Amino acid sequence: xxxxxxxxxxxxxxxxxxxxxxxxxxxxxxxxxxxxxxxxxxxxxxxxxxxxxxxxxxxxxxxxxxxxxxxxxxxxxxxxxxxxxxxxxxxxxxxxxxxxxxxxxxxxxxxxxxxxxxxxxxxxxxxxxxxxxxxxxxxxxxxxxxxxxxxxxxxxxxxxxxxxxxxxxxxxxxxxxxxxxxxxxxxxxxxxxxxxxxxxxxxxxxxxxxxxxxxxxxxxxxxxxxxxxxxxxxxxxxxxxxxxxxxxxxxxxxxxxxxxxxxxxxxxxxxxxxxxxxxxxxxxxxxxxxxxxxxxxxxxxxxxxxxxxxxxxxxxxxxxxxxxxx
Length: 326
Ligand SMILES: C[S@@+](CC[C@H](N)C(=O)[O-])C[C@H]1O[C@@H](n2cnc3c(N)ncnc32)[C@H](O)[C@@H]1O
Description:
By secondary structure, this protein is of the alpha/beta class. The chain has 12 helices and 9 strands. The strands form 2 sheets. The chain has a 7-stranded mixed sheet with strand order 5-4-3-6-7-9-8, with helices on both faces. S-adenosylmethionine binds next to helix 7.
């Protein structure tokens, strides 16, 4: 096969990826993925249980199989083992993120072309229910990444941590579970902080994770003397000016020797190699961006931090960190 043919094949696959996305998200929304997580299950009985028509259910399940997300067991089907635990109902359930991405790409469909023509990308302000849905989605995705980040970071000396824009505390909670002496403050908008407090009630680490409502551009909200200030998935939603200010505020709130860590999508210096990083930059339109390592390290230096480093969480995300001089 010539290179031209394989290039065309890749293009075809990319063009169908929207259909893939829809198949996956509708399978999450209708409960197909949860049933497959508990499988093997026959298509007929799954369709009946979920109130779906059998023929289309079969087509969706077979497409999921071709995509490598499900596998056959005789005439029955199950999710592949790596996905079972994240689609079974429970604390690791990834379904809320699917629902979020479904809405998100609906909005892309309406807004991308006008935005490209220089028009405004209309954003709908989220109502409290929308804020909660968004937060559930961040928790579902964040849970996966937070566990990996906690495996990779040395948290042994962290006793006081601030999680800036920390949502309902996905990272703070995961870090507190790993480090028994760690106490965390999670700063987010008042509605989100309230939701975090509700969710955290009666958990075994609720006395070590505190939620505070406020604006992360307000220096008063940062407190002081933190061993770790975490900026997870927040700089990308801000302009250069605001993001660099947040790094400075975070650095000021550190104790001597403390660490500032940024967890975010990775992108190469020319911003044209990482698929997730470049696509996510579009999602952040004009108010944010996927920032390369040199830009973020520049903010670290401007904020007086040294000992810069980087840990790759996976091909798409990194931890960039620096320390306040002791
Ligand atoms: C993409 S989410 C990241 C949540 C969490 N850090 C994570 O990685 O899972 C961004 C968070 O920033 C919060 N946020 C946005 N603007 C904020 C502001 N001005 N002050 C405080 N929090 C804000 C949002 O409510 C949301 O929880």
